[in-house]
Amino acid sequence: MTEKRLTEVVHQFCFEGELQEAAPYGNGHINDTYRLTFCTSSAPRRYILQCMNKSIFKKPVQLMENIQGVTGWLKKKIQQAGGNPERETLNIIPCADGCPYYVDSDGDYWRAYLFIEDSTCLEKAEKPEDFYQSGLAFGHFQGLLSDYPAETLYETIPDFHHTAKRLEKFYAAVQDNVCGRCEEASREIQFVRDREKLSHMLCDMQEKKELPLRVTHNDTKLNNILLDSHTGQAICVIDLDTVMPGLSVNDFGDSIRFGASTAAEDEPDLSKVHFSMELFEAYTRGFLEGCAGRLTERELDMLPWGAILMTFECGMRFLTDYLEGDHYFKIHRPAHNLDRCRTQFRLVEEMEEKLSQMAEAVRKYR
Ligand code: ADP
Ligand code: GN1
Ligand code: MG
To answer: What are the angstrom distances between the C-alpha of 110 and each of 55, 59, 134?
Structure first.
């Protein structure tokens, strides 16, 4: 970010004090995130400033409306429960004219939040308790929003978790083979072909209304939760860009795909990548406790399938992006998306073997 652009952007928001430092922050694959530090007459104030990815979020105004609606709702519920709304949900910092975002001279959309102090964001669970906390937070999020009018939310990325439509896009990428990478990925392409039927399972159930439409987060990675640095307890669910109507089983599954792995999402050495039943069980216990009985029997039955399908879908998305020339997910090395795809498919294989154990763990805590 150039100094000129930074000055232009920072001056639009109602920040307190004088800018001291702006530094890139976090490990997101999509947005550009900065942490800003301001000097004030008392303690320094920090904020998160983000430039939204305009090629992915094509409707930033609707997206911010979703976030305003959901954070406003959460604030009220947190207050009613005697909690701290400045810490337990995201707080949007408006611009001087009250608008929750700023459009810069390049047409980029920016927004800012209070920085949640004394918090930690984990890329990997250090112990099962961390993942239990993450489950508790996402379950609680689901619970607090269970009476939110889901139909008033915009579908900011249409068919985001429509696995069958993702499969169609994948086949188109294989067909076009624009980068000539199909040969390098032939085993992974076959892996998808072998599981073609799977991709219809949850979308069909959603269409037949066998699973209810809920307010969902849609990006429930461990690093989208902040934990208290002192107590280790979950404080806040962040990264609300993809809050939309969706399926609770997908939110559950996306957490498992990222957090129940023994290795990073992009680990190139597959011998380190395993699906951990211990972590699955820790998350399940937290998630079901957080949901506090709000899930239907059918949703509970399908949770293990949510894990398999979200992992399969994400692997397929990484593979599609690799075949199309890496235009969606940020990459930091050649074949980064292929490495990411391979970890996901390794996890899918192990989850398939452990399906009955997963169902048993869900039974234990339902
Ligand atoms: P992305 O969509 O690119 O993943 P996120 O909204 O998740 O972007 O933000 C990236 C990182 O910035 C997070 O993983 C977290 O470490 C940090 N972060 C985001 N919002 C806050 C906040 N309000 N307070 C403290 N840290 C935050
Ligand atoms: C992206 O923004 P980030 O890094 O939290 C992606 C998710 C993927 C995830 C894979 C809007 O999430 O859907 O599951 O990468 N977000 C979007 O790590 O596509
Ligand atoms: Mg994130």
So the answer is: 14, 13, 28
Protein residue with least CA distance to atom 11, ligand 1: 26
Which residues approach ligand 2 with their CB closer than 6 A?
28-30, 56, 219, 221, 224, 239, 241-242, 265, 314
The residue whose CA has the least distance to atom 6 of ligand 1 is 239
Cα separation, 297 vs 83, in Å, equals 31
Q: Is 122 exposed, middle or buried (0-12, 13-18, 19+ CB in 10 A)?
A: middle
**Global pTM exceeds 0.85:** yes
Q: How far is the CA of 26 from the centre of ligand 1 (A)?
A: 6
Q: C-alpha 365: how far from its chain's center?
A: 24
Measure the CA–CA gap between 344 and 312, rounded to whole angstroms. Answer: 7
Strand partners, 72: none
Using CB atoms within 10 A of its CB, is residue 138 exposed (0-12), middle (13-18) or buried (19+)?
buried
Given this model, what pLDDT does residue 331 score?
97
In angstroms and rounded to an integer, the radius of gyration of the C-alpha atoms of the chain is 20
- Note the Cα 366 to chain centre separation in Å: 24
Label residue 39 exposed, middle or buried (CB < 10 Å: 0-12, 13-18, 19+).
middle
Contact between 227 and 133 (Cβ < 8 Å): yes
Residue 206 CA to chain centroid, in angstroms? 20
The residue whose CA has the least distance to atom 5 of ligand 1 is: 239
329 CB under 6 A from ligand 1? no
For each successive 10 residues of the chain (366 residues), what is the average pLDDT?
87 96 90 96 96 95 98 98 97 97 95 98 95 98 94 94 98 98 98 97 97 96 97 97 97 98 97 98 98 96 98 98 97 98 98 98 96
Which ligand gives the minimal distance to the CA of 90? 1
**350 class by beta-carbon count within 10 Å (0-12 exposed, 13-18 middle, 19+ buried):** middle
What is the rounded distance in angstroms from the CA atom of residue 306 to the CA atom of residue 201? 10
Q: Which of 13, 46, 48, 222 to mutate to test the pocket of ligand 1 (most atoms within 8 A of CB)?
A: 48
